Every structure is written in C-alpha cells, then in structure tokens.
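PT: before anyone asks, these are the final sequences, not the draft ones from last week. 616 residues across everything. Please model them as a single complex and drop the result in this thread when it's through.
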Amino acid sequence: MDKVLVELKNIKKSYDDTEVIHNLSLYIKENEFLTLLGPSGCGKTTLLRIIGGFETHDDGQVIFDGQDMKDTPAYQREINTVFQNYALFPHLNVFDNVAFGLRIKKLDKDTIDTKVKNALRLVKLEGYEQRPVSKMSGGQQQRVAIARAIVNEPKLLLLDEPLGSLDLKLRQDMQYELKEMQESLGISFIFVTHDQEEALTMSDTVVVMKDGVIQQIGRPEDIYNEPKNRFTASFIGESNIVEGVMKEDYLVHFEGLDFTCVDKGFAKNEPIDIVIRPEDIVLAAPADDRINGVVDDIIFKGVHYEIIVLVNGREYIIHSTDPVNVGDEVSLNFDPDEIHVMKRTDEASS
Amino acid sequence: MIDRLKKAPFIMVTAFSYFIIYFPIFVIVLLSVNASPSGQTFTEFSFVWYKEIFLNERLLTAIFNTLLVAVISTAVATVVGTLTAIGINSLTKTYRIRFMILNNVPVINPDIVTGLSLMLVFSLLPISFGMPTMLLAHIFFSIPFVVLTVLPKLKELDPNLMDAALDLGCNYFEGVVKVIIPSIKTAIIAGALIAFTMSIDDFVISYFTTGNGFQNVSIWIYSRLGRRTFSPAVYAYNTLVVFLTIGVLGYINVNNIIRVKRRSEK
Ligand SMILES: Nc1ncnc2c1ncn2[C@@H]1O[C@H](COP(=O)(O)OP(=O)(O)OP(=O)(O)O)[C@@H](O)[C@H]1O
Ligand SMILES: [Mg+2]
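LR: through. Structure below.
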C-alpha cells in the first residue's frame, strides 16, 4: 500500500485559452481508493482523461509506475476506464464486450473464456453472457462496464461517475460492491464523483477540487472534521461557517464572545473562518457566556431534527434528536475541539 | 357521417395523386406485355419483349454497364463516405458544421451543374471519356449521400466509444474497424443502398461524363427514343425494375414487421 503508483506533477491543461487544470500535483499509491470530488465542471473528467491518455496535458508530467507517460498512448497504458455513460460496444453481447480487451491481446480462447467467466461472476452477471448490451438495465450495463475493465487486470482503474445514473438503493449497493471489489482485487481506483457522501463512504483518500485546483487531500474523516477552507467545509456536508478572529493560540473570538479552542499557529488577531458541524451543537437554556438565539424553524429529517436558530440575523443549523419549539430562546453549546478554525481564503471575503 | 363527408375531398385528392403516380407505371407494365412493337395499340398479350431483353445485345451491354458502374461506385463511395463521416464526426463542433455545409452543396446542386462541371474537369485531365469518367462521376456524387446517412448515426453513438476501444488496447485504426464501423453498420448499409439507387437512376450526370460509346441503360434508352431501333424490350426491362423495387421494399417491410413482433413478444 505504500508504493506510489501514479504521480501527477504540475499538470496544466487549457481548452481554447481557458485553463481548466491549474498546476495540479497529486499521487496515488498502490491499492488505494482515491476519489476526485468536486462540483460540475471543476475538471474531474479532464484529469481522469489525462491519466488515461485520452487527453494530452499542456505542461507537467504523468508518472505511472515510475515512468513518464508522455509518449505512451492510451492503448499501451496498464490502465482501464469505466466511462461516464459506460460506452459499451452496442454491436456486441455481454460476453463479447467483456472479452474485447483480451481478444485484442490475442489470448487463447480457453484463457479468455475463464477470465470472462470470472469477471462476470465478480460483478454478479453470470448467465447474461449472450444478452445484447442494449437489453440490459442501467445497473447491469454499469457492471458490464466494470467487468470489461477489470478483466484486463489493470494496475489502475479509472471510474468516471459510474454510479451517476443509478437510483439510490442500487447506488448504495454498488458503492459497497465496488469497494469490496477494489479490496479483493488489490488494484488502485481513481473514482470521480460530485456526491460528497459517496466520496466519504468509499474512499481511502478524498481529493476535493474546485475550478481545476485541489482544495484539500486527505482521509474522509480528516476532510470532514478538519476542512481546510470554506469551500471544502461547505461542499462536504452541512456546516455552520462563521467569520472570526484568532486572538492568540487556543483562543478564538466570534459572535462577540471568546472561546477556547484546540487550534494554534495563526498570527495574532488573524481573521479566520470557523466551522461547527450541525451535529456538534447542543441546545440548552440561554446563558450569558454562550451564543444565544431564537429557534426559527424545525424540519423532521427521519433520524434527527434539523433546527434553524437565528443568532444576530445569522442562521445556524443544528441536528438534534430532541425536539424544540419555534420561538424558543436557546443557547448554542459546543466543546473546544468541535470548533474548527480555518485559514481565511480570498473567497471568504467576497 | 358528417365527418366522413368532410374527409371526402381529401380522400379524393389522395386517390387522384396516387392514380397520377401509378398510372404511368401501369402503362409501362401494359406495354411490356403488348405484342405490338409500335406501342400504339394493344394487340395481344405476350412475354416476347422479356425474351428480347436477353437477345438485344446492346440493351444487355447497357444493363451490364449500369450495374458495373453502380456496384463499383457504391463500393468506393461507401468506403470513402464512411471514413469521411468518421473524420467529420471527430472534428470540433464549428468545423463539423462547416464540413457538413460543404458536404450538402453537391447534394443540393442540380445534376446539370454537377454533370457539366465534372465534364469540364475531366476534359482537363489526361483521361479519355467513357467508363472511367462515368465511374468517377458516380463515385463523386454518391459520397455526400453516404456521409449524409452515416453521420447522424455516428452522432448518436456514445462519445466515449472510441476512447473505450483505445482503453482496451486498440490502436486508432483498430478502434475504427472493430468498434466504430460495426456500431454504425445499419447506417452504412442504408448509405450504400442510397448510393446504389442514385447510380442506377442517374441520367444527366452520366450523359455529360461518358464518351466513346459507353452507355448505361438510361443513356441507351435516350439514344433510341423515336428511332426504328427502339425496342419495347426497354418497357420489359423497366417493368422488371419496378417489380424488383416492390420486391425489395416488401422484403424490408416484412422483415421489419417480423422484427417488431419478435421484440414485442420478448
Ligand atoms: N473538449 C473540451 N473542449 C472545451 N472545453 C472543455 C472540453 N472538455 C471539458 N471542457 C471544459 O473544461 C472544464 C472541466 O470539464 P470536466 O469535464 O473535466 O468537468 P467535470 O469536473 O468532469 O464536470 P462534471 O461533473 O459535470 O462531469 C469545463 O469548464 C468544461 O467546459
Ligand atoms: Mg465529468
């Protein structure tokens, strides 16, 4: 798990004078499940296509297994891809789709038969060999696409929003199955999604992107608990983001009050952003040394209530299992380690 | 009842137009089985002119020439047209639109212009008029039709299809041959059929670009009209073509019905 498989160094890519990938560097280790997460148009597909060799980059290096891929065309890379809309071959049945790559490699018929059978078993499509792919459902097509890729035993599998068009239930099943498959096959996955929940559940590493720039790389827990900036914090889950000032190490000031916190290393009186997750706030009776507000709205969300509290005109979102009433005066309570302090980015002031 | 009365005029117009369309065909069929060589009066029912097709050497040669030019030009135009369409499809949108306009100009251009301009071009080249020039002309005017039929099908394909082929180890050429072309097979066949019909059909362009006595059926008929050497075998030949067309159309329709039925049974 420790050997680096792919390294991207200072990748730049422009379309018609618009730079869509800005000086991006990233590495993925062997056997790692890495997810590229970001809003539509942030360059996820473009980055994936550069790694796969379907798109050339203007500057920088793609190093795969220790080798610069500059002059290696897509068909010679030990990488396979599950494309955004699967791109199955419409003129072939399931078996022939999956066998395609092996036939190009001119393996003998028996080997091909065994390998295709195994791949189809892995994606639970045994017995569908002779079906035309056009007669398969969306979820089945997606499995054919996965089988067609993994049957070639690549070192790296690229998946571009493979679960995008599936309904919620199937999506959750497939998330689980994909993760399981990745672990049992022992190959690296680069998975693209704009669904933060999907990214957090499946990945070893999450890469948050925005406008062709990496915002943060980290384990799902770290990305969630310690977002580096306002964008990551708001993109990953619901959160309360407040401006404040770092008075000194371990002392932060916001909403007119001082709070002890666990962050340090900021300049004296540096303006910062603070994140507090909705589930980390506990409501209690108003108190002088607390942030006080009025309950504005309550929405039942199944497992918990989503409570909106108005504090000096600013909305706080709180998740709680205890119901309150609209109009109640409450105080917001949280522990020092639940205050997360982030460096102020340009975006925050805009 | 009132509804039916309101519809009556339209139904009559429909009936009349069908009559106008089919009447001439009926006349040709009738004349083809008329024993009289003059065609002024119907004398006696006979298949003699059908036999005559195979006895009239000039007509046989013309039929052979027509088919020869049609088969070769269809083959070449289908290959070139398909590759052209694949090329156009791989361009960015602005260029694709420009090339499509370029492609459509010869399609819309009157045959007389095409024929005349091709004749001028050929006369500048060191080739003598005849079969080669007519063949080149037919290839030339068929290609845009193949492009026009194949391109929409290409646009329908998943844009990542070629990348998927590359991903699985094909080089670009293999990708075209093993994935793209099989995926658009039906459109290629349709394009070939159109090219073939256009070639069989053509008179104007052929007339301008042939020479040295090389005649296809339409030119041969034109050169015989009103002469003593005119033979009602022409009617017989045309009747055969009509029935062949009906046969092909019928076959395609029946096939479609069977396919649709099979699909709905599943
Ligand atoms: N072939 C192209 N020509 C011009 N611009 C392109 C091309 N492909 C992508 N772009 C632009 O590059 C940017 C990044 O696109 P990309 O497809 O990588 O985004 P994405 O993150 O995959 O988005 P999505 O989640 O919608 O798939 C977008 O602004 C897009 O308009
Ligand atoms: Mg994308």
